[in-house]
Please model this.
Amino acid sequence: MANTTHTAADTATEAAGHAAEAAGHAAQSAGMPQLDTSTFANQIFWLVVALIVIYFVLSRIALPRIGAVLADRQRTITSDIAAAEELKAKAVEAEKAYNQAIADARSEAAKIVAEARAEIQKDLDVATAKADAEIAAKTAESAARIEEIRAGALESVKDVANETAAALVSALGGSADDKSVASAVSDRMKG
Amino acid sequence: MATEEHSEGLAFHPMDQFIVKPLFGGEHVGVLTVTNVTLWMAIAVLCVIALFVLGTRGRAVVPNRTQSVAELAYGFVHKMVEDVAGHDAVKFFPYVFTLFIFIVFSNFLGLLPKAFTPTSHIAVTAFLAVAVFLTVTIVGFVKHGVHFLGLFWVSSAPLPLRPVLALIEVISYFVRPVSHSIRLAGNMMAGHAVIKVFAAFAPLILISGVGIAVTPLSILAITAIYGLEILVAFIQAYVFTILTCVYLRDALHPAH
Model:
């Protein structure tokens, strides 16, 4: 086999043979097949076939498809980013609305609390005033009763003194009418 | 010859992996012969279809792994074309992408054991480079007519220097496809050949005592160079593509 190739590229074989000898072996080499011009037409023919097939497969099918996929992806990403941007704006808005609602509710609650407090205070004031008035009336009544009782008590002391004096006079053997006893007792009590 | 080599012990055939041979027997390689070139280019095409057609079948907004890789490649090259060649070069994007994907898949598939690497052949890379060269030149003349020649006329330089610079610019312009193609093929070929040379040293342990040291070393070297080759496989595809973009920019905006 090597012999035929050898004849095909004689000079090349010589050169390679020298190289081979320099490398330390005396064997014949096949030379540089790259310089064997008899195979050029064959290689170029198949190269052209391969390139044409690759070119058409790529330019008709693969490259438009990949280009479309890449463009599609770019579009998807862009629109997704826009949608995300929009959603973010919406979220911010919603948060604002939420905060507003909370603030409103809080002030409303404060108002209601204040109102309720005022009402309770009013009721309380009314109740207090009424209670005060009742207490005052009760106190006045009690004071009158006490005054009455005290007066009654003085009257009772005079009666008891009269009776006691009359009993003493009769016990000592004397006799006195009620009128003189009473005047004597009232004289003493004045003193 | 084979027996000769076996008697010596080690078999050095670092270039055999680059031989173009018919898949279904015979020795003659005609234009239409189905060869290992055909096979590995077909595998590359199938991989391209698997990744870019089947992988993106779902058209998912949230991509799966395969679709992510396809989109990554798309975005990588699209950005390169837009950044390097300018916004009006985007209509050349499928063309540039085809080149990039073909080279990347050829390079990486070539790293499989027993694989054939189409991009290690100067015929293939020269065809690609000349195609780029012609495209760029035609686009330049169609878009700008004679003004495209302004690319060679460095108007910011002092007047006496301009003819000299123009000569240099013209030469460098025509050298472009040469460096463009040899850079790719050379890189791919050299890496693969070096791996093969180290691989030939690996079985030395079966033959002589020196092998105790040489075999682990060569295996280590194969591993290291393989890692480097993975890097090179991508970088060379990238370099080829970005140079294509640079040339496109020159064609679309020839003013210095």
Summary: Residues 1-7 of chain B have pLDDT under 50 and may be disordered. Residues 2-252 of chain B form one domain. The two ends of chain B are 59 Å apart (CA to CA). The longest helix of chain B spans residues 211-252.
